[in-house]
Structure formats: C-alpha cells, structure tokens
Design goal:
mainly beta
Length: 171
C-alpha cells in the first residue's frame, strides 16, 4: 500500500511498512508510526510520534467510541457518537471540542472540524481513473495525533477500495 505524493507544497503521506504497520512521512523524514492490531475487536493501535507513545482504541459496548491514551495510560482524548445513528462524533482533546465527521464528498471521507470549518480531512477520490486518497489540512493544523486518528479511521476504507499501490493527493 505504498503511497506517493503527486502535488503538494507539503509532501506528507502515509506508507505501509508492514502488515498493519504504517509510517506518516514528510519527504524522507518519519513524523509518526502506527501499528493497528487487526485481530482485536477494539482495533487497538500503537502510535509513536517522536519519543511519545499513544494508544488509539475503540471503546464502549458497541465499540463506537474512541479513546486515545498517552504512554502512561492516561486518556487524553475521547470520541463519542452524538446519536447512535449519527454520522458524527464529538472529539474532546486538549480542552477543545471538535466534530469528527464521516461523509460522502462525493466518496467516503473522514474530517475533523473546529467551529464548523474543516481542520483536517482524509477522502477517497479518483485521479486519472484510479482510486486515490486526498488529504487536506488547514494552514493552522499542526497536531500529528489528529492525522493518526484520521488514518486509524480511514485505513479500512483505503484498504477496501484500493489495490496495493494507490495514490495520495495532498491539497
């Protein structure tokens, strides 16, 4: 699932480095890594950003909530559905409340909004007749953990809809 950047002023992309193991890269530098345990119903992911370790996992009876914990096990972010049938979650992180949305735009897309504006979005799209991923970020976006959260949510969509070599478009 190697991804390449075709157009960008900031060439960030996710690369597969093993089964369920991904690296978030900028040029040749690794910004973060993530390993997702697929055998677990909680779909637990181990994230490393620099020297910091985090865990992302689905929680709750229906596994429709998400918690992010730091290396000491302290919960630092929570995502909860607004309604059981909704396409939105509320993300509480660093004293801010964000909206985490799944939408069709026109294909599957996960986005994080702050005050009604997209902060970060990962979307399935097409490019030259092939499936591609479009990553868009607001100029103010700097938090790599939010990229990891969206990739955690988006990677099943990418895996299901694309072959091993797909294109990553960064806008």
């Amino acid at each position: 699932m190697e991804k390449t950047t075709t157009s960008s002023t900031q060439s960030r992309n996710w690369r597969t480095i093993g089964e369920g193991h991904y690296a978030f890269m900028q040029d040749d530098a690794t910004l973060a890594t993530m390993e997702i345990a697929r055998a677990s119903i909680a779909r637990k992911a181990a994230v490393t950003i620099g020297h910091e370790n985090y865990t992302i996992e689905k929680v709750g009876f229906w596994k429709n909530g998400i918690e992010i914990s730091d290396g000491s096990g302290k919960v630092i972010a929570t995502c909860a559905t607004e309604k059981w049938y909704a396409n939105a979650l509320t993300l509480d992180y660093k004293g801010h409340t964000y909206k985490l949305l799944v939408r069709n735009n026109p294909l599957a897309e996960w986005a994080i909004q702050e005050n009604g504006n997209d902060l970060l979005a990962y979307a399935l799209t097409t490019h030259d007749g092939k499936a591609a991923i479009r990553l868009t970020a607001a100029p103010t976006h700097q938090d790599l953990l939010l990229d990891c959260l969206l990739w955690y949510l988006f990677v099943p969509i990418a895996t299901e809809n694309m072959d091993d070599g797909f294109l990553l478009l960064v806008v």
